[in-house]
Amino acid sequence: LSALGVVAPEGGAIDHRSVVDILTLCRLHKTDGELERMRFANQANSAAHEAVLRSVRPGAWEYQMKGVLEGTLMQHGLQFPAYNGIYASGTNSAILHYVVNHQEMSDGELFLIDSGYEFEGYGADLTRTWPVNGVFSDVQREMYSIVLEMQKNTIDATRPGVKMEDLHWLACRTLLEGLLDGGYVKGSVDDLMAQNIFALFFPHGLGHFIGLDVHDPGGYPKGVDRIDRPGVRFLRIRREMESGMALTIEPGLYMIPALLGPAFEDPIQSGFLNRSKLEPLLHFGGIRIEDNLVVNDSESGHENLTSLVKEIDEIEAIMKDAKGVRG
Question: Please, what sign has the CA dihedral across residues 94, 122, 148, 313?
Answer without folding.
Answer: negative
